[in-house]
Automatic annotation (TrEMBL):
SMART domains: PlsC. This is Lysophospholipid acyltransferase family protein. Residues 84-196 form the Phospholipid/glycerol acyltransferase domain. The chain crosses the membrane at residues 28-49, 70-93. Pathway: Lipid metabolism. Pfam families: Acyltransferase. InterPro entries: Plipid/glycerol_acylTrfase. The keyword Magnesium does not apply.
Amino acid sequence: MSVWLPGAPCTPRGCVRPTARPAAVPLAVLRLTAVAVLLLAGIVLLPLGRRIPAGPVRWWSRWIVRAAGVRVRIAGAAAPAGGLLLVANHISWLDVPLLAAVRPARMLAKTEIRRWPVAGALAARGGVLFIDLDRLRDLPGTVAAVAAVLRAGAAVAAFPEGSTWCGRAQGTFRRAVFQAALDAGVPVQPVRIRYLGAGGTPATAPAFVGDDTLLASLWRVASARGVVAEVEVVAPIPAGRHADRRSLALAAQPETDAEHAHGHPEYRII
């Protein structure tokens, strides 16, 4: 557990409910094959890096999620250019392409990912900003590096909860990354991610929590029926509105479903 980003209590056995009517095995295999093909296409284009226009990146990101069998609905939009800190609640590995579908950004990720076979090298080449969650003394340097990227006019995407949650509960946004937005003088754009099943109830199949393996999570998502990802892009918090990172993190924190029940954002299917 990190000294400054605590882990979530969610586990696959305790929080992930079995799919009532799983998709047929051939369909699940077809979905995973489509995901693999899209990932290979992304790997081929990776050397081009940030020279690839934002439009194709957003299209590719959306189709990664759609290929896995998850429909996508988005409400709102992010600023298309300029320094911006995108922050979202964290449930699944699907959250990463969903944020890229909102606006391509440099992702903030834990250093363990750099050590993953193949994926770690690809993430580094793709511009991921790595952070060591267990080394508190490295935190100021990480904040300064993120602030420098933001000042240069790029977007940075982060999951300030520091861990994935199952979707039926959520964590608290930690404050550290918000200091980078304050130092760089850029807006913060909160994004609210939900996964729904039949009847609009929370779907836990996409959750990637606890000691879950990526392979098990991939199969669970590909085998699920009728999962919808709802992505609500909230109005940006302008630079200078909050004087300290504590109040900025609190303002960006997504509402619970009960608090959000009064709102009816206009979602579009993509």
